C-alpha cells in the first residue's frame, strides 16, 4: 500500500490510478466481456465503490464470481490473481462459503485475513461483504470493502459465549475467582458453579448444543455445534444455515422461520454443503432440533444439531436395495406376462387341431365300422388334449388376471358351479398317464354332498380345477413303483 499512498501523495488521483490498473488487461477475453458491454449496475458500482477507494475494495460478479478489484486489493492479495479471475480458482473454502452466504442476501463482516493473505498483520481489520442487486431485483454479485478498525479483536468472536461471559464473570479462569470472591453472595456463587458445570457438561456432549434468547440470539453455544457445521468461516450460531445444501436450504429455512415465529418444536433433516474435502465419503446429513424453553413468550429456545450421516446412509442404502428388488420383481412380472401372451397362440393352435382331429375321426368312423375301438381311443385322446390345453389356458389367464389385479384393473367374482361334474372332467387329463404307469384310478365324491343334497356351489372354479396335487401324487407314486 505504501507505493499507492506515495503516488496519491504526489497529487495523482486514486481514481485515475485504479482506472489505469483496470484498463491494463483485455476484458473482452474474460467471462463478463468487454467493459463497454457491462451492465449499468456493474459499471456504476465499479466507478463509485471500487475505483475511488484508496483502501481494499473488490466486486465478485456473476455466477462465476469474477473478481474486479482496485490496486489496494491486488497488493493485499500479493498480486497473484490479477483482474477477472474466478473466485473458486484462487480463494479458500472459507472465503467461498462466505461469498455464497452473501449471495443469498445476507450482509456479513469477516476477518480480512480470509480474503487478503498478504495484508499486514498490524492491520487487524474486517471486510464488509454485501449483496449486489440489479435494477430488476436479482442478486448479481458481492461487494467487498475493508473496514479499518484498530480496536477489532484478533479473532472472530462467538457472540453467545461472549455475552455469557459478560453476564457471568464467574466463568473466567479459576485463578481470578479468589480475587472477586468478596463481591458475590453465596447464592450468586451457587449460580456460577451451576453455570460452570453446565458448560463443562455441554462440551462433553457429542452433539451441538445452543441456548438462544427470545430473539434467537445465542446465549451459549458449545464447541460441538461448530464442529458439526461444515462451513468453518464463522464461529457464530447465526452462521449455521451456511452448512445447508443449496437444494435443502429454502425448505429448511422456511420451516425454521415458521417454528421460531410460532414458537413450535422443530425437527428437520438436511444435507450439508461441504465447503472443503472431508474424510467422510458421500453426503453428510444433520438433524436440527429447536424447542422453546417454556410457553412464556419471553422465554428463549434450546437448539441442537446431530450428525446422522451413518443412520441416513444406512437408510438410503436400504431404500435403494428395496427399490432395486421391486424393479427386479416388476421386470420378472413383465417377462412372465409377455411369455404368457406368447403361449396363447400355440395353445390356440393345439386346441383347433385337436378339434379337427375329432371331426376327421368321426367322419372315418361313419364309413368304417370295424375300427370303433380305435376311434374311441382317438376321440378320448383328443378330449384329453383339449382338457390339457384348457387347463394351460386357465393358467395363462390366471397369470394375466393377477397381473391386472396387481394393477387394480381386475376384481374377482365367484360363480355357481357343479363340483362333481367339473372335477370328473378335469381329472380326465391324467387318464393317459394312469394307463402308461399301470395305475388304477377311481373318482368318487364325498357322501356328504348326497346327504345334504348339494349339487351347486359358489366357488372359484379355476382354483378348484388346478391339477398340481394330482400331478405331485403321480410323481410320488412313480418313485415308489
Explain the overall architecture.
With about 475 residues, the chain is α+β, with helices and mostly antiparallel strands. Helices cover about 50% and strands about 15% of the residues. It has 18 helices and 12 strands. Strands 2-1-5-4-3 form a 5-stranded antiparallel sheet, sandwiched between helices. Strands 7-6-10-9-8 form a 5-stranded antiparallel sheet, sandwiched between helices. A hairpin with a 5-residue loop joins strand 4 (about 125-135) and strand 5 (about 140-145). Residues about 150-185 have low confidence and may be disordered.
In short:
By secondary structure, the chain is of the alpha+beta class.
Beta-strand residue fraction: 5-15%
How is the largest sheet built, in terms of strand order?
2-1-5-4-3
Fraction in helix: 40-55%
Q: What's the alpha carbon Rg, rounded to whole Å? A: 43 Å
CATH-level-2 architecture of the largest domain: 2-Layer Sandwich
Number of domains: 4
Overall morphology: elongated
Give the N-terminus to C-terminus distance in angstroms: 108 Å
CATH-level-4 superfamily name of the largest domain: PAS domain
Largest sheet: 5 strands, antiparallel
Total DSSP E strands? 12
CATH topology of the largest domain: Beta-Lactamase
Give the ordered list of helices and strands.
Answer: HHHEEHHHEEEHHHEEHHEEEHHEHHHEHH
Spans where pLDDT lies below 50 across 5 or more residues = 150-184
Round the mean pLDDT to the nearest integer and report it.
Answer: 77
Q: Which structural class is indicated by helix and strand composition?
A: alpha+beta
CATH C-level category of the largest domain:
Alpha Beta
Q: Number of helical segments?
A: 18
Amino acid at each position: 500500500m505504501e507505493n499507492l499512498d506515495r503516488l496519491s501523495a504526489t497529487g495523482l488521483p486514486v481514481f485515475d490510478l485504479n482506472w489505469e490498473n483496470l484498463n491494463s488487461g483485455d476484458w473482452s477475453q474474460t467471462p463478463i466481456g468487454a467493459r463497454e458491454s457491462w451492465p449499468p449496475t456493474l459499471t456504476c458500482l465499479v466507478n463509485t465503490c471500487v475505483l475511488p477507494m484508496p483502501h481494499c475494495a473488490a466486486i465478485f460478479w456473476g455466477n462465476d464470481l469474477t473478481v474486479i478489484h482496485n490496486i489496494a486489493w491486488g497488493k493485499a492479495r500479493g498480486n497473484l490473481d490479477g483482474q477477472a479471475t474466478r473466485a473458486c480458482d484462487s480463494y479458500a473454502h472459507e472465503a467461498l462459503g462466505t461469498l455464497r452466504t452473501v449471495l443469498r442476501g445476507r450482509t456479513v463482516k469477516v476477518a480480512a485475513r480470509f480474503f487478503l493473505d498478504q495484508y499486514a498483520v498490524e492491520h487487524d481489520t474486517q471486510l464488509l461483504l454485501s449483496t449486489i442487486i440489479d435494477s430488476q431485483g436479482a442478486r448479481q454479485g458481492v461487494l467487498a470493502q475493508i473496514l479499518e478498525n484498530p480496536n477489532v479483536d484478533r479473532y472472530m468472536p462467538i457472540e453467545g459465549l461472549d455475552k455469557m461471559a459478560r453476564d457471568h464473570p464467574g466463568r473466567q479462569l479459576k485463578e481470578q475467582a479468589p480475587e472477586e470472591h468478596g463481591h458475590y453472595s453465596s447464592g450468586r456463587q451457587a449460580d456460577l458453579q451451576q453455570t460452570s458445570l453446565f458448560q463443562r457438561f455441554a462440551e462433553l456432549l457429542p452433539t451441538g448444543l445452543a441456548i438462544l434468547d427470545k430473539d434467537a440470539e445465542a446465549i451459549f453455544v458449545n464447541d460441538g455445534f461448530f464442529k458439526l457445521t461444515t462451513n468453518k468461516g464463522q464461529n457464530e450460531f447465526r452462521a449455521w444455515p451456511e452448512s445447508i445444501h443449496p437444494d435443502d436450504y429454502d425448505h429448511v429455512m422456511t420451516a425454521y422461520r415458521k417454528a421460531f415465529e410460532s414458537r413450535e418444536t422443530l425437527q428437520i433433516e438436511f444435507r450439508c454443503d461441504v465447503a472443503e474435502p472431508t474424510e467422510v465419503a458421500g453426503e453428510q446429513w444433520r438433524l436440527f432440533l429447536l424447542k422453546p424453553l417454556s410457553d412464556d413468550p419471553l422465554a428463549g429456545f434450546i437448539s441442537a444439531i446431530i450428525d446422522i450421516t451413518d443412520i441416513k446412509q444406512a437408510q438410503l442404502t436400504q431404500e435403494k436395495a428395496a427399490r432395486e428388488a421391486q424393479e427386479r420383481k416388476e421386470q420378472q412380472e413383465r417377462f412372465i406376462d409377455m411369455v404368457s401372451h406368447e403361449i396363447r397362440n400355440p395353445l390356440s393352435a393345439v386346441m383347433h387341431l385337436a378339434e379337427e382331429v375329432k371331426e376327421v375321426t368321426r367322419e372315418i368312423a361313419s364309413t368304417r365300422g370295424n375300427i370303433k375301438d380305435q376311434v374311441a381311443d382317438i376321440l378320448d385322446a383328443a378330449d384329453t388334449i383339449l382338457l390339457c390345453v384348457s387347463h394351460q389356458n386357465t393358467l395363462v389367464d390366471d397369470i394375466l388376471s393377477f397381473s391386472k389385479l396387481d394393477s387394480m384393473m381386475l376384481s374377482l367374482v365367484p360363480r355357481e358351479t357343479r363340483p362333481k361334474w367339473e372335477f370328473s372332467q378335469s381329472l380326465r387329463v391324467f387318464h393317459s398317464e394312469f394307463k402308461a404307469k399301470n395305475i388304477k384310478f377311481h373318482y368318487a365324491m364325498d357322501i356328504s354332498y348326497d346327504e345334504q343334497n348339494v349339487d351347486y356351489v359358489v366357488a372359484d372354479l379355476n382354483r378348484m380345477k388346478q391339477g398340481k396335487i394330482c400331478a405331485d401324487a403321480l410323481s410320488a407314486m412313480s418313485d415308489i413303483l
